[in-house]
Design a protein that fits this description.
By secondary structure, the chain is of the alpha/beta class. It has a domain of 207 residues: 2-Layer Sandwich (Aconitase, domain 3), CATH 3.30.499.10. The chain contains 22 helices and 21 strands. The strands form seven sheets. Strands 4-3-2-7-8 form a five-stranded parallel beta sheet, sandwiched between helices. A four-stranded parallel beta sheet has the order 12-11-10-13. The longest helix has 20 residues. It starts with 11 loop residues before the first helix and ends in an 11-residue tail after the last helix.
């Protein structure tokens, strides 16, 4: 349990003393860099002085040492780092040393989530069969992970079938504020990860980003990472979020805006009056996309929404209270009308963000729904071969997943079905999200359209799409340009499936609508997407379905009660066992 020291909570006084800048006037990302130097560098005074001069005058301070407090790995990139540690163990034994002399100096969490493939979809046994195939295909790799967890005391392995690493990190693994030894205060529970979307944890006010395997190994062996002083960019969010705008719409709009502003390698932090309109899962979707808008990280401040989310995820009241006190003392807490020493500020007006998609081959190609048919003109009907609700960006968001379920419910009530050539799949971000859909009854509606759960992990979003349905293959042979629609974060050509020509990123609700339409050469928001049993063309009211408000309780008490029960259900903490 995190305990509060009697003399101080953080090392903020050390930062202020040597940098000459009060924490409340430092950009939060700069403070976290300075705090890390103060806590982990033997003689930090000169480095902090240089950092202070950099903030005041723009003088390059040179390389800054950074020591994360934890490492996050997924299985694809993590196996190489663990294999290197295992080789060091063998070398130690060959020199007559104890193998225990080789271990990670930092806690490592490895989440197995990149190996599940959508070999089976569209039927109730899809999850069971895909997991069985995954275990059989990866028996040797998983055996190595079991050995590694026993060999390295600082390694914890989350078994396959639990969720996507970034969602598990957000819900279960992230360390909020970490006590230093001997009552020296506390620091932010920073993290580096062997996956670029480690930035998702920035939604909790925790500094984290993705690194290569070598950098992860350097940190694991106790050495600091060397950072060049980044540009510090503040993104002010203003205006009012429009009805029907999903987390995916926000994330894609922010991605385009920041790409155009060129935030390449910047330390980006968000704030502004509209921050209160974003839940932590909404913020996580934006923070997750930092690699797509080119930034090093996308940090959010800590506020009551952060604490409420942590409480809902089952974090202890002691831990939450300590994190609140730490955030207030270090000025990581959200504040109105703050003035900090950012290098520049970019304003994004939420009023201007509409329901949209991104594609056909880059995440920053934000496209209004009405423009999609024009872009695809001359290409035929552009049939949807893959419709996948996948990726940590959106399957970690309860509201977005509920919205997808509500679209499916409406479609089911109207007797609609998904065309035979569409391969539909659903890979929830965690078991919590799956419980939400089950408890609300919405999973039954998704199942009715073929969106059965196929696995818990990165599936279609990393190209683990499995074979196309034969009807889609025939369309390809007949000359059709196939499309994929997914709630992912990357859609580069060839990434989703080698036989699919154009990939569109969309909210989970729009993925369902696209699946029902079966083609992309139409306006998903206003054109009829299907015909009912009576022959009537139907347009699905996506703008009305992606938001559930308290006002609905007066006219739809049963549905709102189901959703309330579902949200209560996900508050139960997960109970995954150690892999070893």
């Amino acid at each position: 349990m995190i305990s509060r020291t009697e003399t101080q909570i953080s090392v903020a006084h050390e930062v202020a003393k040597y940098s000459g800048i009060r924490p409340e006037t430092m950009p939060r990302t700069a403070y976290l860099l300075a705090e890390n130097i103060a806590a982990f560098t033997p003689e930090p005074a000169e480095l902090l002085q240089d950092l202070g001069t950099w903030l005041r005058e723009g003088t390059d301070p040179g390389e800054l040492p950074f020591r994360p407090t934890r490492i996050l790995m997924q299985d694809t990139a993590g196996i190489a780092a663990l294999a290197d540690l295992a080789a060091l163990r063998d070398h130690a034994v060959s020199r007559g040393w104890s193998p225990e002399t080789v271990s990670s100096s930092l806690p490592i969490d490895l989440v197995i989530d990149h190996a599940v493939e959508v070999e089976h979809a569209g039927h109730p046994e899809a999850l069971t069969r895909n997991m069985a195939a995954e275990m059989a295909r990866n028996a040797e790799r998983y055996g190595f992970f079991k050995w590694a967890e026993r060999a390295f005391p600082n390694l914890r392995v989350v078994p396959p079938g639990n969720g996507i690493c970034h969602q598990i990190n957000l819900e279960e693994l992230a360390r909020l504020a970490v006590d230093l030894p001997e009552g020296q205060g506390a620091v932010c529970g920073s993290v580096i990860g062997t996956d670029s979307h480690t930035t998702m944890v920035n939604a909790l006010g925790i500094l984290g980003w993705g690194v290569g395997g070598m950098d992860a190994e350097i940190a694991a062996l106790g050495h600091p990472l060397a950072l060049r002083a980044p540009r510090l960019t503040r993104v002010g969010l203003t205006g009012k979020r429009q009805s029907g705008v999903a987390a995916a719409d926000l994330a894609l709009a922010v991605t385009r805006a920041l790409r155009q502003a060129d935030v390449t390698s910047d330390f980006v932090e968000f704030g502004g009056a509209a921050l209160s309109a974003l839940s932590v899962p909404d913020r996580a979707a934006i923070a997750n996309m930092a690699p797509e808008y080119g930034a090093f990280c996308g940090l959010f401040p800590v506020d009551r929404f952060t604490l409420d989310y942590l409480r809902q995820m089952g974090r202890s009241e002691d831990e939450i209270a300590f994190y609140e006190a730490y955030a207030c003392e270090t000025s990581l807490w959200a504040a109105a009308n703050e003035q900090r020493l950012w290098h520049r500020e970019i304003i994004i007006d939420l009023n201007e963000i509409r329901i949209s998609v991104a594609g056909p081959n880059r995440p920053d190609q934000l496209t209004d729904l009405a423009e999609v048919p024009r872009i695809l003109s001359g290409l035929g009907s552009c049939p949807v071969a893959i419709a996948s609700i996948t990726s940590c960006t959106n399957t970690a968001n309860p509201a977005s997943m509920v919205a997808a379920g509500l679209v499916a419910r409406t479609a089911r009530q109207r007797g609609l079905t998904v065309p035979d050539h569409v391969k539909a799949s659903l890979a929830p971000g965690s078991r919590r999200i799956a419980r939400l859909l089950e408890a609300s009854g919405l999973q039954e509606d998704l199942d009715a359209l073929g969106f059965h759960v196929v696995g818990f992990g990165c599936t279609t979003c990393v190209g683990n799409s499995g074979d196309l349905i034969p009807e889609a293959k025939q369309m390809k042979q007949d000359g059709a340009d196939l499309c994929a629609v997914l709630s992912g974060n990357r859609n580069f050509e060839g990434r989703i499936h080698p036989e699919v020509d154009r990939n569109w990123l969309a909210s989970p609700a729009l993925v369902v609508v696209a699946a029902l339409a079966g083609r992309m050469n139409l306006d998903l928001a206003s054109d009829p997407v299907a015909v009912d049993a009576a022959g009537h063309p139907l347009t699905l009211p996506t703008r009305q379905l992606v938001r559930v408000t308290k006002a609905e309780s007066s006219v739809q008490p049963n549905r709102c009660q189901h959703l309330h029960n579902a949200l209560v259900a996900i508050a139960k903490p997960m109970d995954f066992k150690r892999f070893g």
